[in-house]
Specification:
The complex is a heterodimer of chains A (64) and B (329). Chain A has 64 residues and is mainly alpha-helical. Chain A has helices at 18-27, 33-41, and one strand spanning 52-55. Chain A is globular. Chain A starts with 17 loop residues before the first helix and ends in a 9-residue tail after the last strand. Chain B folds into 3 domains: 11-102, no CATH class; 107-214, no CATH class; 231-329, no CATH class. Chain B is built from 12 helices and 6 strands. Chain B has helices at 11-15, 21-45, 51-65, 72-86, 90-102, 121-129, 139-159, 161-170, 209-227, 254-276, 282-309, 314-327, and strands at residues 111-114, 173-176, 185-190, 198-201, 242-243, 252-253. In chain B, strand 3 (185-190) and strand 4 form a beta hairpin. Chain B is globular and about 65 Å long. Classes of the chains: A mainly alpha (64), B alpha/beta (329).
Amino acid sequence: MAVMKIDFKKLLGYRLVADQANEAVMSAKVGDKRGAISKAALATKLGEKAGDKVGVKDGKKPVR
Amino acid sequence: MSAPEKSVVDRNTLTNFVPCAARGRALDARMHIELASSLGHLSNASKDSFPEISRRLVEVADAIRMGRRVRPQVFRAYFLLVQALVAEDQHHAETLLQKIEAAPDRSASLKLTYFGASEADSLSLDLIDDGLRLAPITATEAADFQMLLDEGLDLLRQNLSELYGELRSIVHEVLLARAPSGDKMQFDGASHYQFWGLLMLNPKHHKTPLAIVEVLAHEASHSLLFGMTIEEPLVLNPDEELFTSPLRLDSRPMDGIYHATYVSARMAWAMEMLASSGCLSDDDHERAMAMAAVDRSNYAKGLGVIDQHGDLSATGKTILDDARAWIGH
């Protein structure tokens, strides 16, 4: 099978983490590349939710 | 299928702090153009390995270039498709591509759905798979919240029309859910870069039209930042560095601090503009100004952390400078 050459700098979102994504793919074992990108490169900027969690104490209204 | 929208605004307007409906339309159009371009690149890259996938990708990309406007789940499927192709997982790539092709186009009206409704199962489970802790709500809770949301949107449309227009250009679906019982940390609202156009709300935490306006200003500002973060990140700090957040009890990477700080300023803007519009009762006016004071305080806390530790990109600096100028006016 031909090897695909995906340039992360040309991809929406992945452009922001292109260096990390490339590194993750290069260092991943065969068959584990998807997991490597998902966990390593997308951890914060594209993977973490930007919502705001609030703590809940004693069942009272949460306070930011 | 509608013709592609011409949404051109100048660079200053794109990063301006003050809400702007035209900017919202431009960012939504840009995200779709970027999606089409990205699918085109994936098509080229997969031409030799997966020629049939490559051909179908061209068709999807062309449809988007011609004006197809897609739902948040399609953006998410694209992000997963990249990973499937990188892993050379043909079966998974075909499944995701089929999902992209078969997804109905985005509707013009704001779509409200809730975790617990069968139509939202796939979306809800996808978000849970990605780490969000969600639990279902009832149809009655959703119907009650729909009325409140409509009241909040009316308040916005009638009094803060540019914010309303910007928000409606960016946010096209709202998913209602709550946190699992017993969780010490709950979400009151959330957005996600990979689900462009989606906003998640926890109905338990928003009880008045004024609170709806504030949370919409808040969450739509996260989405706005996503739309302005296409070429480079907002901050260059390593993800491993964690700092105190003005809005959350858990420590956050600088990207999260930046988001919290910016959205706090936009919440203050919304509350102060609404208060000065003359549309609120005396009691609500007082509440709005109190909420704005808290928002300004949170902004100041976040800005202190950014000024001390933030390594901002040029984009991040431009956007924050504009917020700083408005807050200090």
